[in-house]
Amino acid sequence: MKYNADEKGYYGEFGGAYIPEMLYPNVEELRQNYLKIMAEESFQKEFNELLKEYVGRPTPLYFAKRLSEKYNTKIYLKREDLCHTGAHKVNNTIGQILMAQRLKKKRIIAETGAGQHGVATATVCALMGLECIVYMGEIDIERQAPNVARMKMLGATVVPALSGSRTLKDATNEAIRDWINNPTDTHYIIGSVVGPHPYPDMVARFQSVISKEIKSQLQEKEGRKNPDYVIACVGGGSNAAGAFYEYLDTPEVGILAVEAAGKGIDTGKSAATSVLGKMGIIHGSKTLLMQTPDGQITEPYSISAGLDYPGVGPMHAHLFKSGRGEFHSVTDDEAMKAGLELCKLEGIIPAIESSHALALFEKKQFKKEDVIVVNLSGRGDKDLNTYIEYFNL
Amino acid sequence: MNRIQQKLEQDKKLLSIYFSAGFPELNDTVSILEKLEANGVDMVEIGLPFSDPLADGPTIQQSSTQALKNGMTTQILFDQLENIRERVSIPLLIMGYFNPILQYGVEAFCKKCKESGIDGLIIPDLPLAEYEAHYKDIFDKYGLMNIFLITPQTSDDRIHQIDAASKGFIYMVSSASTTGSGSAFGNEQEEYFERIHKLKLKNPCIVGFGIKDANTFSMATKRASGAIIGSGFIKMLSKDGIEGIGPFVAAIR
Ligand SMILES: Cc1ncc(COP(=O)(O)O)c(C=O)c1O
């Protein structure tokens, strides 16, 4: 079984490029060039240098002693929360901005939900002096005001998505519509391993730096490259794709994906796509998505805006369907509790997305000698308002 | 010969209308089709509404959303169209996004289309490669024409490829835009229309996107075989309702 994209962008039966003809020239240009450009020595050099000097990589692989004691197993945290801008998202935006420059694009568009990807995109656009337009659902603009302000400070234009349910999926629709209307000078920086081929593969490759580092760091600390398990939360699935990437073909490493159950799987307020979704087409990709029996895409719910997406990337649909990945879902309450626990035990305030991954320790029993890596995808600063309201701080 | 091809053999420029099924009211579909035919429209694209119509501008987004709120589903549309061929004889196409069709079952959908007398399908997010690899045989089995789009950015090579794969006509998107963009046709469009004309394609081209009145219709059809009005028609429907169809069509040509 193969877990990476084939040349047509399929992961098993999932993936492909279901795009209107208006997008074909742009997507095809990218498809024909992305691997070639990424393989160029000058690209690699610039990418790695920026990750090191600007993003602050490698991020630590931190042994969480007190958390390990509590759950009677050996837990390492991959500290993506320490990346510049506060989450793993910037690994991808650095890669894509360099790609856009080599494709001679002058104008950058992006979608954002929580605002993390929007901030990461605005950041690299400022760095490179490129125009930046970020689409964000009108409702998310209200929920995530600090990130809206950050994007504006970084010089980006934030455009409210007023269509549909006015959240992440609609912001993505608006970004795609922008690209249709600006077919020659614009690059669309998608924020996760979603969208038409080659996006899922390209974003996964940029994020794969996470598991490359885990391998060498674990070798240093444990004398072995492979943990027993890697745990990551899945919204679209980019931090998970990055954390799993190097281990996809290593069956002795357990792949644990955690989705947002919201208020509970059966409450109608959930974002657990692997449980509630069916195969369909969203944003140009054939994948699992939440929809009505009639094929209308439904609105997900999670307390965490970054997990509030009705689909998952095609790689994850395939990991789920093939059984290579073990999928779990965690409710708002379980995630919030796990987030607060990490604060108290380790002095780290996690993003609520990442708290979902941490909540797995209450649900799954690990062995004492197991070595487990949790991808701590982001820090909780952006979520302070939600934490304050939830815990009456 | 399919009704679309027959129509295209006639020596006049085709006027085609797009509307969202289930808009303004759930059960307006049949009366709109009858009114369009009675007023001399040559062909109709019946829009199957979708929650996330990526290639559409605000007007068609809103009519789709309203249609869904009115309760429109794929099954209801087929129920409405069950006896349509007793009442309407112009070519009818269904235009919709691929996901609702996939959920209905591509084969079941095509079978229903054939039974209802639908002549062709326009599915913007089902591109040539995926169509040919996975679905062409099913469309062919039920005698449905699948209509592909080209845009000003489509390369000549790809246009020839699409021409070779097309039956019926090619849907020529007038400009780089989503549906209903307001800009008038300028030099760029004229050059594009001219360029396509010179390619001497085997299929006729029908222009869509941005056609809204007599002026844009006549510009678009100078070189092409016909033109499609969507957003402009829906705007009229929102304002004047079904009674506005006669005057609207009369003003186009
Ligand atoms: C910190 C953090 N983790 C995870 C996610 C979810 O995205 P993905 O599943 O692509 O990693 C987000 C998205 O905003 C995020 O900000």
TrEMBL record, chain A:
Cofactors demanded by this protein: pyridoxal 5'-phosphate
EC numbers, comma separated: 4.2.1.20
GO cellular component terms listed in the entry, alphabetical order: cytoplasm
Keyword entries, A-Z: Amino-acid biosynthesis, Aromatic amino acid biosynthesis, Lyase, Pyridoxal phosphate, Tryptophan biosynthesis
Positions bearing N6-(pyridoxal phosphate)lysine: K89
Pathway involvement of the protein, from the record: Amino-acid biosynthesis; L-tryptophan biosynthesis; L-tryptophan from chorismate: step 5/5
Gene3D superfamilies: 3.40.50.1100
Alphabetical list of Pfam families matching this protein: PALP
Reaction(s) this enzyme catalyzes, per UniProt: (1S,2R)-1-C-(indol-3-yl)glycerol 3-phosphate + L-serine = D-glyceraldehyde 3-phosphate + L-tryptophan + H2O
Residue ranges constituting the Tryptophan synthase beta chain-like PALP domain according to the UniProt record: 56-378
PROSITE patterns attached to this UniProt entry: TRP_SYNTHASE_BETA
Leader peptide range in chain numbering: none
Gene Ontology terms, MF aspect: tryptophan synthase activity
InterPro entries to which the protein is assigned, alphabetical: Trp_synth_b_CS (IPR006653), Trp_synth_beta (IPR006654), Trp_synth_beta/beta-like (IPR023026), TrpB-like_PALP (IPR001926), TrpB-like_PALP_sf (IPR036052)
Record note on quaternary structure: Tetramer of two alpha and two beta chains.
Role this protein plays: The beta subunit is responsible for the synthesis of L-tryptophan from indole and L-serine.
Family named by the database record: Belongs to the TrpB family.
Protein name, UniProt field: Tryptophan synthase beta chain
Organism: Ulvibacter antarcticus
Gene name for this UniProt entry: trpB
TrEMBL record, chain B:
SUPFAM superfamilies, per the entry: Ribulose-phoshate binding barrel
Active-site residues, record numbering mapped to chain: E45, D56
Class in the EC hierarchy, top level: lyase
Assigned EC number: 4.2.1.20
Cellular compartments per GO CC: cytosol
InterPro entries from the UniProt entry: Aldolase_TIM (IPR013785), RibuloseP-bd_barrel (IPR011060), Trp_synthase_alpha_AS (IPR018204), Trp_synthase_suA (IPR002028)
A Pfam family matched in the record: Trp_syntA
Catalytic reaction annotation: (1S,2R)-1-C-(indol-3-yl)glycerol 3-phosphate + L-serine = D-glyceraldehyde 3-phosphate + L-tryptophan + H2O
Pathway(s) annotated for this protein in UniProt: Amino-acid biosynthesis; L-tryptophan biosynthesis; L-tryptophan from chorismate: step 5/5
Keywords associated with the record: Amino-acid biosynthesis, Aromatic amino acid biosynthesis, Lyase, Tryptophan biosynthesis
A GO term, aspect molecular function: tryptophan synthase activity
PANTHER family found in the cross-reference section: TRYPTOPHAN SYNTHASE ALPHA CHAIN, CHLOROPLASTIC, TRYPTOPHAN SYNTHASE, ALPHA CHAIN
Family per record: Belongs to the TrpA family.
Function comment: The alpha subunit is responsible for the aldol cleavage of indoleglycerol phosphate to indole and glyceraldehyde 3-phosphate.
Subunit structure: Tetramer of two alpha and two beta chains.
Descriptive protein name: Tryptophan synthase alpha chain
